[in-house]
Amino acid sequence: MISIEGLRKQFVTKKSTIHAVDDLSLSIKEGEIFGVIGYSGAGKSTFVRLLNRLEEPSGGRVVIDQQEITALSTKKLRLARQEIGMIFQHFNLLWSRTVRDNIAFPLEIAGVPKRERDERVTELVGLVGLSGREDAYPSQLSGGQKQRVGIARALANNPKVLLCDEATSALDPDTTNSILDLLVDINQKLGLTIILITHEMHVIRKICNQVAVMEEGKVVEQGDVLDIFLRPKQQVTKKFVEQVMGTNDENENVNQLIESYDQGKIVRLHFIGETTNQALISYLAKHYKLDINILQGKITQTQRGAYGTLFVQLIGEREELDRAVHFVKEDTSVEVEVLRDVN
Ligand SMILES: Nc1ncnc2c1ncn2[C@@H]1O[C@H](COP(=O)(O)OP(=O)(O)OP(=O)(O)O)[C@@H](O)[C@H]1O
């Protein structure tokens, strides 16, 4: 759906030349929610603004739905932008216009007749959950509601792609979650491809399928979200994963666990993304003669199921414990490591 090749943007200032986006190549599939994460200054905003040429590239190619955006004349670009919706951290609403008129604005520009415009606005207001607030002004809305207006306005012309530039960064955690849920809902209902820029890994974890990590204008790591959580390679990626999973001070703790719980087996269960495995603990307790003691762990949810680690103590006859461990190894996708066997 989107192909980006060798994209570059330099800002030349009196003192220096800043390579905000530096030879960046990516391809993004149709219907995907693609996250781009990086710390402040990594070049994320510049990157996303290059995609619809709110910022003119210094070099490289952007192709969206078979249309080479980087080769379009100003006039054709205006039309192409109707296919690319965008939402912003600070909403960018028109303060003197009501919710209804904000959402109608891109339709007016596209020359949609009044009756059709009204119908479309009513539909969009319902889609983003703002029915009843059509006549409110932005100043009368909460942050989450303002972003809902931003989303409805971005969707007005039925775009194929939605660009989100730190769309939840100004919102509190609950509101962030409700806006992220809305984005997933829209992605599923409309089959829209979403590119989402953020500095928060929990946003990526919650809704993205794919993620690219940016540092100094480049993509330094990229892949399926679950794989990136499982095997982060770059230091910067490891730090982002730690935002969600906590720091990796397990090794010290493991020795402590082994010393404190001297009965049975101590095992580490590593959940890597299949939701069917979430009932594993109760399954083991029901089907094998053993007691399970959960000692420590952290499990989080991604779009592809649970990810995380659980340390458990299995108490029972050696043979029964061996059978249970064998079952987990052979018949589930949960990775199991015996840290201390029966004494
Ligand atoms: N118009 C501009 N003129 C000069 N330098 C710029 C301009 N816009 C961005 N930059 C520089 O380009 C680099 C990347 O900025 P960008 O805003 O894209 O990063 P970011 O990852 O989005 O960070 P943040 O989340 O803080 O906005 C920074 O060094 C920034 O100072």
TrEMBL record:
Pfam families: ABC_tran, NIL. InterPro entries: AAA+_ATPase, ABC_transporter-like_ATP-bd, ABC_transporter-like_CS, ACT-like_dom_sf, MetN_ABC, MetN_ABC_transporter-like, NIL_domain, P-loop_NTPase. One of its GO terms (molecular function) is ATP hydrolysis activity. This is Methionine ABC transporter ATP-binding protein. Belongs to the ABC transporter superfamily. One of its GO terms (cellular component) is plasma membrane. It comes from Virgibacillus phasianinus. One of its GO terms (biological process) is amino acid transport. Keywords: Amino-acid transport, ATP-binding, Cell membrane, Membrane, Nucleotide-binding, Translocase, Transport. The keyword Nucleotide-binding applies. Residues 2-241 form the ABC transporter domain.
